[in-house]
Every structure is written in structure tokens, then in C-alpha cells.
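Re: duplicated header lines in exported C-alpha cells

Our pipeline writes sequence and C-alpha cells for each protein into one text file. With two proteins the header for the second block appears twice in some exports. Here is an export where it did not happen, for reference. First protein block:
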Amino acid sequence: MIDALLIAVLNLVLTIIFLYKWVIIISALLSWVQPDPSNPIVQMLYRLTEPAYRFVRKLIPTVFGGMDLAPLILIFSLMFIEIFLKSLFVAL
């Protein structure tokens, strides 16, 4: 019973990580075209990604040659966490 609960929680966390990676990718792609900041979708993406970007920028410098690498660093970090959790999932 406990194993089933842990498996369900791990699947939920992995799904959230997967979806958040896509939110980051969409937000990064939208930043290239400078969308209307009053658009509700753009505002939602900004609210979802900016706290994580701010955290990464506080830890390490992310702007190189005028390009912000915070989304890339965040995606790689999420991929690392995802692989780690999947390896725990196999151990169960």
C-alpha cells in the first residue's frame, strides 16, 4: 500500500517537472518575439517562470554575450532531478 502511494506521488512529481519544462521552453521562445505584456497567457508564463529564473540568477551569473541562459540552466537542473527521481522509482 505504501509502495503504491510512493509510486503515485513520484509519477505526479515527474509529470509536474515535465510540464514545467515545457512552460520554460514556451516562455523562452516567446521572449524572442517580445509579445504583448498585457496578454494573460504571457503574464501567466511570466509568473510561473520568473521566480525560478530569479533564483538561478541569484546563484550564478546567467547572462553571457547578451543572452540569458537561466532557462537552459533551469531545464538541465530539472532534467537532472527527473533522472534522479526515475532512478529512485526503479529502485522501488
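Second protein block, exported in the same file:
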Amino acid sequence: MWCFGVAYKPYQMHNDMKGKRRRHDPEFKARVALEALKGVKTIQEIAKEYEVHPVQVSEWKKVMAQNAASAFGASAGCSDAEEFEKERVRLHAKIGQQAVELDWLTKKSKQLGL
């Protein structure tokens, strides 16, 4: 369709009106997913209440159900990356201590003429 010499696209106005994507914090997602898991309200009711799409509520519910077991796992609250970082810090401290001891022994052996 042409309007004043310019091609008019009916869907163009809709695309211009779109806003930025909303980003939700993990606490919000958990609250919505937990309410969906309870089953007291329907997904549609929850989506309307929290102003999110019903598909998003279902997705968060699925993720929450899949990851629920990790909350009660052997290393609850401590991931492999965190354990690796703690071990790395401990080993670096050990290396530093050994370097200081080696420097001290080298200095003393020179003083004693060894």
C-alpha cells in the first residue's frame, strides 16, 4: 500500500511500538516458579498477576522443577567452580610460604658458608 509516495507497511507501526526486553532477577523468577509449582493458581492467573507471558511462567516452572534436587545435594550452595577457586587460593598461599622459606634458607646457607 502506498501513502504519500512512501510504501506503507501496517506491521511497521507495531514494531516501532515495541519496548526493550524486560530482565527479571532470579528472586522474581523463583517466586513465580514456586507459585506455579504449588498449583493453587493456573499458569494464566499467575502470568496475569505478575505481568509475564504464560509460556515464560511454564519455562521457569520447568527449570525450577529440574534444578530442585541440587538444592539438597551434597555440596549445597557450593559449586565446582567455587571449590576450585578455594583450592587454588590455598595452593597459592602454600607456594608463597615455600618461596619465603626457600629465600630464608638460601640466605642462612650463604651466611654459614655452605
